[in-house]
Design a protein that fits this description.
Number of helices: 5
Strand content: 35-45%
Structural class: mainly beta
Shape: globular
Largest sheet: 9 strands, antiparallel
């Protein structure tokens, strides 16, 4: 009997050794198998729990625990991976994770709820609401808006979702909304590494570093004098250096190399943002702070303000966005969390529109429609037959004139990029009435499809081939730049060594501080002269037309010259001058031909732009397009000169960014 038991134990231990051998081999072959987002689904079958207390609401799915102030609806705590709170305790409970706005009367206003409601609660999902209802008969000093803030937590999800429903009823007072966003302030002792893109990520200075630094000409820019991290000494920090186009602003956030944890804001759709795919917004910056900015006047000026008239009704849903947290057990690999965050972003984009929000104001997939088609370009001076609008940006927006989408801010917009053959597919479109707009990189002008497009639930609209005929009167005599809505192709100088941000040395050079001052250093005695046929716009056309400093402390206007030869002049014909600006700030550009002191300019833009695009390190803001007829008798046979004068001279930041300039000959 004893031998039988001995044999059984021998068999048991033998099998155990074999199992352990294969397990260890598997781990050795896949050492990082569960490293990224480790335990992201620690308890995939954990029911989502909701605990409602007198002054707080707690949502918990076994991965993330979220605490919200009641009834205010501010995010006071995010507990994850043994970290009691990812948010900073240096701020009050309503200043850690909050929705706010900047409006016309009293500047910043934080939306605090006055009522709480459980919208949905089951084993797999919780959705709660914190509502601030504006009462015109009360003494509420805030903006005349009702705001319903929603938070959603799902089973097995490493994070939570947030969205808000803004509403105005008929009869309410008018107002202006300059900005609205969702902001998070993170732990200063944990989060030091910020990631915006593959090329813009770095160890960041602290808020204390900025306080000890030197404030530069533009107050958001600070020269770091005595940072805690000596590697940052002598660099410039400015939140606008981390701004991003809406089309690229899908995920950004922070990494804690100390705890191996990442915090990310993921925006799966741009439908609730304003002014199209090139609208720039702030992302993350020193604090550490992460922002989901839905609307602002940044880089577009007054056209980015939402102006409501007395009595005007309005409703819009901002979001949902996903607040995602991830982790690694090996803290040396913490920076790999950026790659995991990008993968999660792709999953969220693929899942849009979400099926789980419980609001009639957020239509689900089957309640939306789509538009497909193909866009061609016909420029008869280049090709006799239409050619594909390769990589065109095609979108639906509120009905208006061609290009009006860049000033549209109250409705929804839906954009996509066509393939190389001009085929496009705009999906998940909310029901409504739209115009279809487009612009093509490398082609001047804006396209608008004449017919109104009405989207109904489940409707799939297939358009015929659309043909865009860009502005053209005659053959191109010469051109400067590329019509791509940015100044990025022009000459961008290296930053002054005293004002460098190191991560911008190789990429996005235009975001360096103080480039407006480099113009005088490059052209100390004479303004820019560009000779057609000899000069190269990539080397010889400064990206920003700015002022000079005078010896008396005042600023001086600058006049640039375009020199070109005309072997033949048709005196009785008209030539067409086309000027496209990629941005402007309190500027006026005047154009003259062959006489820089001529009494009347052939073209004046008059005062345009409040975009601050130069000071905020942008390569583009709002697009401005101008044309002028130039009578043939003003030209001479041989050498001619066009003079471009920027006449407004109050400060360093006034000026324009050029996109494209073209002179066309008489029609043929």
């Amino acid at each position: 009997m004893e031998m039988v038991w001995t044999r059984q134990w021998a068999i048991f231990f033998g099998l155990l050794i074999i199992i352990l051998f294969f397990c260890s081999r598997s781990i050795a072959e896949n050492p990082d198998r569960n490293n990224l987002g480790e335990d992201r689904y620690d308890e995939p079958n954990h029911e989502v729990q909701l605990h409602v207390h007198d002054h707080q609401v707690v949502m918990d799915n076994g991965i993330v625990q979220l605490t919200l102030a009641k009834p205010e609806g501010s995010v006071t705590r995010i507990k994850y991976k043994g970290v009691d709170n990812l948010l900073s305790n240096r701020y009050g409970e309503n200043s850690r994770g909050y929705w706010d706005c900047v409006w016309q009367n009293n500047g910043q206003w934080v939306f605090l709820g006055t009522s709480f409601e459980v919208i949905n609660h089951n084993k797999s999902q919780v959705e709660v609401s914190f509502k601030r209802t504006w009462d015109p008969s009360s003494d509420d000093s805030g903006p005349p808006l009702s705001v319903d803030k929603r938070f959603i937590m799902l089973n097995g999800s490493s994070g939570f979702y947030a969205y808000a429903i803004y509403e105005r009823l008929e009869g309410w007072n008018g107002t202006s909304l300059w900005q609205t966003r969702l902001a998070f302030k993170l732990r200063e002792d944990l989060f030091h590494y910020m990631a915006i893109s593959d090329t813009r990520q770095r160890v960041m200075p602290t808020a204390d570093d900025r306080r000890r630094g030197e404030v530069l000409s533009f107050r958001e820019a600070v020269l770091l004098k005595n940072p805690d991290n000596p590697d940052l000494k002598g660099e410039v920090d400015d939140k606008y250096q981390y701004a991003c186009d809406s089309k690229d602003n899908k995920v950004h956030g922070w990494i804690s190399q100390k705890s191996g944890v990442g915090f990310w804001l993921i925006t799966p759709s741009d439908e609730f943002r304003i002014s199209g795919p090139l609208k720039q917004e702030l992302t993350s910056h020193v604090g550490p702070v992460s922002l989901s900015t839905f609307t602002s006047s940044h880089y577009v000026g007054k056209s980015g303000e939402e102006i409501f008239q007395d009595g005007e009704a309005w409703k819009k849903v901002f979001g949902p966005i996903f607040i995602y947290v991830n982790s690694v057990s090996d803290k040396k690999k913490a920076l790999s969390l950026w790659g995991d965050a990008k993968q999660q972003m792709l999953k969220e984009v693929e899942s849009w529109p979400y099926s789980f929000p419980h609001s009639r104001d957020f239509p689900k997939s089957h309640e939306r429609g789509s538009v497909t088609g193909r866009l061609l370009v016909l420029d008869r001076y280049i090709n006799q037959e239409p050619t594909p609008a390769s990589l065109a940006y095609v979108g639906l927006s509120v009905p208006g004139e061609a290009g009006s989408w860049q000033d549209e801010k109250k409705g929804y917009q839906f954009w996509t990029q066509a393939d190389e053959d001009g085929h496009f597919f705009i999906k998940a479109v909310r029901p409504g009435t739209y115009n279809l707009f487009a612009w093509v990189p490398g082609v001047i002008g804006d396209y608008k499809y004449d017919a109104i497009i009405t989207i109904k639930p489940g409707r799939k609209i297939k358009l015929r081939q659309l043909v865009f005929e860009p502005p053209r009167d005659g053959p191109t005599l010469w051109e400067i730049g590329i019509p791509d809505r940015t100044a990025a192709e022009f000459f961008i100088p290296d930053a002054d060594p005293k004002f460098v941000n190191k991560i911008l040395v190789k990429h996005d050079k235009f975001r360096q501080y103080g480039l407006w001052n480099r113009y005088e250093e490059i052209y100390p005695d004479q303004d820019l002269v560009y000779t057609v046929g000899e000069s190269d716009y990539r080397k010889d056309w400064f990206f920003a037309h700015v002022n000079r400093h005078g010896t008396d402390g005042k600023f001086r206007r600058t006049t640039w010259q375009i020199v070109f030869d005309l072997p033949v002049v048709e005196m009785a014909a008209n030539y067409k001058f086309r000027l496209v600006l990629a941005g402007a700030n309190f500027a006026e550009l005047q154009v003259r031909l062959n006489d820089p002191n001529g009494r009347e300019a052939i073209l004046s833009t008059h005062l345009i732009g409040r975009e601050n695009v130069i000071a905020r390190h942008g390569s583009h803001g709002r697009l401005w397009s101008f044309t002028a007829n130039m009578p043939g008798y003003l030209f001479v046979k041989g050498r001619n000169t066009i003079y471009l004068t920027q006449t407004r001279t109050s400060n360093s930041f006034q000026g324009v960014l050029y996109d494209y300039i073209r002179l066309e000959g008489p029609p043929q």
